[in-house]
Amino acid sequence: MGNRARLLPRRRKPLRPARSVFLGFLAADLAGTGLLTLPAASTESGGAPIMVAFFTSTSSLCVTGLGVVDTPVYWTGFGQAVMLALIQLGGFGVMSFASVVALTVMHRLSLRSKVTFALEGNKPDLSHVPSVIAGVAKITLLVEGIVGLMLAARFWLSYGRSPGEALWLGAFHAVSAFNNAGFALFSDSLVQYATDPAVSLPICAAVILGGLGFPVLVQLRRDLRIPRRWSMNTRLVLAGSAVLLLAGTVFITALEWDNPRTLGPLDWPSKLLTGFFQSVQTRTSGFYSVDIAALDGATLLVMDALMFIGAGPAGTGGGVKITTAAVLFFILAAEVRGRRQVNVLGKSLSPAVYRQAIAVLVLSVLFVGTATGILLVLTGFPLESVLFEAVSAFATVGLSTGITAHLPAAGQLILIVLMFAGRLGPLLFASALALRDRPLHYELPIERPIIG
Fold this sequence. Notes:
This protein has 16 helices and 2 strands.
């Protein structure tokens, strides 16, 4: 051959981490759909229709909780086990990926380049990734195990369930709660247990812990008694969660206090417990202990806001995230005060963070607004119900005013897209922005349009 150039085989471009997660979720969704269409998965003669299976699989995998059928009646034990596996996979998978991204950003490492080099055969340091995933798995199993046993004991000792049935109920609802899915094995969700703190409070605890996010849980485990070491992320998530839970409890309880179809018939301790429970679930989980369709319009509007904000980043909850809402609040406060720099908890925010928060907010509003408009055209349901359903799907909450099952196939497909976009869209979009590092080596002339 001498010195003549040789043509080398063209190397395939590796998939980016975000794209790999998306394709993996899509494959899992299609596999779940196939399993749920099997005759053994449902009580439907010949198996569940493809649309019912696809919607349920997506709702389970995206840990949303919206349903088009009655879960305990329509799905058999095998079908429920498939749903549980999808819930666990959806919660654990996204939490693991988000945790790796979050911890990478916090430590100023270039995850994208590391993963790309690894796929190309090089040897960057990826030692922190297995430990993060193992940590997520340990926390997940610990919380689910403790809550599952507490619920099982209650169902067995106080409600006469057999030990086997009580363990299954405890395990299913613990997994559904920690992953913020909200699927229940009771036709009325948890309405019959609205006044039982031994059932509602463990579920609330699991929902809150899952929604805080892995980085926060890890730091609390390590530095629980040393708040000065807490990161800005931990402080914002904890403070924001407390404010939103309290505000949600106050507004929901006050607005529904005399509603004869919700809190009206209960005594005041039960009203407070039910109001708190619904405030927790509205953040990102789909359990309910009152009839959502019977809520006042003002209550639905408050819940829309709570659902849209959602939980903490790198957790099992959805929404635009508490940190995004907090950053936007501090940006607004700085603008009102005429300050050029945005300061949060004694630290200064990078302009890149402003852009990321605004981009996630605008993208999310576009998704929800567009879907709401299409659903209004396709159906004759009122705006408050359609908006509530769209926000619930996008924020992967799963609460429903009861219209999901009555939507046409096109409307249900819209909700499927919303669930997928809500579960993966903002996360992948925000991570892509956070991990970009392409500085420009020039500046264009500055000019300002008139705003407002």
